[in-house]
Amino acid sequence: MTQSMAVAFFCFYAELNDFLPRHKKQVKISHFFEDRASIKDMIESLGIPHPEVDCLEVNGQYVNFSYIVQDKDSINVYPISAMGATTPSISVRPEPLSLMRFVLDIHLGKLATSLRLLGFDTLYRNDYEDQELAQISSSQTRILLTRDKGLLMRSLVTHGYYVRSTQPQQQIVEVLRRFDLFKLVSPFQRCLRCNGLLESVAKESIIDQIPETVQLQTHEFHRCQDCAQIYWKGSHYERLQQFINVIMERG
Question: Which superfamily does CATH assign the domain made up of 6-82 to?
Fold first, then answer.
């Protein structure tokens, strides 16, 4: 450390501490720096993805992401969960989306299936590259859900969230709570395999595509408009309905 170094003092609130090493959680952080930098770049250098931030307070005044950090600045960084608890004159939180649509990274396949099951438009492939995910999130105005905070820091990404839990059933509850989605749940509307919308289909038109036992016992069928996968209310339906009931009770 040289005499020319400047210092800024950061306080990160609530779940933003999830991104910090243990010795920096819930404490004032002294951050030494030499080069001119925006507050956005500086908080991300400390490990905080910008889509997780609601507002920034510097020396008692709210600023946007372009603010250039100065020597001795005292900086408070508030998370999205602080909405309503603070009344910032400037917010860096993006405008709410009129349609809640998602794109998920490679680590969240089971979460993608759960979101589709509950009726949410959810893109997922196990071979998406990071740049492609960021581009889709930006161009299609989709919320990027990820377990990779570096991906969330890409400048293209405005709407995104780092999924904390590693357990699929906890992940879906976490996302529903974070985006207040329980009231928007509409199960069995989308294909679990490809995300296409389902439509009713006459049994006679698909009779050669379903098992004989199903032909005898079931009369209501749905087919994906995109990939033609056929769905009916078998034992799998009961298991899925039970899963949905458990999820909704937690909401």
Answer: Beta-grasp domain (3.10.20.30)
